[in-house]
Design a protein that fits this description.
This is Leucine-binding protein domain-containing protein. Keywords: Signal. By secondary structure, this protein is an alpha/beta fold. The strands form 3 sheets. It has a 7-stranded mixed β-sheet with strand order 4-3-5-6-7-10-11, with helices on both faces. It has a two-stranded parallel ribbon with strand order 1-2. A two-stranded antiparallel sheet has the order 8-9. Helix 6 links the parallel strand 5 and strand 6.
């Protein structure tokens, strides 16, 4: 409501939830949707014959929507996923672990943040339950890899931007140089790449807004941005469609914290 009242662009929220796309004309997203990610994940595993799927999700509107999306995509493989719902801001419980083990999945699709995701994966591995695990980008690929450490082996993540290792992509190289120039010592994360790309797109909007940038001029410029290639990452905004990103990839996590496509 405040965004509408003040008529200020709300740019690049870190979410792929459909709810954010059903807000108002001042909301602009740069990343693909969770539905896009889920379709990529399920088609990847389904085409390999791994269609016995369990979904770890939050017991709220977005979490249930993610589960329903998995269920809809799985229909093409004539399978139904198993739901394991957890509370937000709470640790994984013994009952949650038992539920996943009892479902005996080929693939565990994780749609939570990295902390409960890492807890579940660690506990499954400690119980010697070998199952493939793929997480939505919401967990934060780099953060999840760091939290898992040696347990990262065999875990994959959907990503909505290229990884920091993709130095052949000009915008990744540009962002890495900016990261280093800013004095950061830690390796650049996938989330940082996403933030850098979003900033690059926003700056392009500001350039097109004219010398005196106002909320109104920036709103007009972003709405009319059209197809913009941010040096290897393409967004496409239109007057009646302000959700520009569609990139979805799959990456493997490494025990050393790396994220590799």
């Amino acid at each position: 409501p405040l965004v509408v009242e003040k008529k200020v662009p709300f740019f690049a929220p870190f979410t792929g939830a459909d709810t954010i796309r059903k807000q108002n004309e001042f909301v602009y997203t740069v990343r693909a949707t969770y539905a896009d990610e889920i379709e990529k994940i399920i088609n990847f595993w389904g085409n390999l014959g791994s269609t016995q799927v369990t979904v770890l999700h939050y017991d709220d509107t977005v979490g249930k929507q993610n589960f329903e999306t998995v269920a809809n995509v799985l229909k093409k493989f004539n399978r139904t996923p198993v739901s394991v719902a957890i509370k937000r801001n709470a640790d994984i419980t013994d009952a949650n672990v038992r539920d996943v083990i009892a479902s005996d999945p080929n693939v565990l699709v994780v749609t939570t943040l990295y902390a409960p995701a890492a807890q579940m994966i660690k506990r499954l591995k400690a119980a010697h339950r070998a199952t493939m695990v793929t997480s939505l980008s919401f967990a934060g690929a780099s953060q999840l890899a760091k939290a898992l450490g040696p347990d990262a082996t065999g875990v994959s993540v959907a990503i909505t931007v290229p990884t920091p290792r993709s130095q052949g992509v000009p915008v990744v190289r540009e962002c890495t140089e900016a990261w280093t120039a800013a004095g950061f010592k830690d390796p650049m994360t996938v989330t940082a790449i996403e933030s850098c790309i979003a900033a690059k797109v926003l700056v392009e909007g500001m350039k097109r807004a004219g010398r005196e940038v106002t909320r109104a001029s920036l709103h007009r410029a972003l709405s009319g941005l059209g197809r913009y290639d941010a040096a290897g990452y393409v967004v496409d905004f239109k007057p009646n469609f302000r959700h520009g990103g569609s990139h979805v990839g799959m990456a493997l996590l490494r025990p050393n914290g790396e994220v590799r496509e």
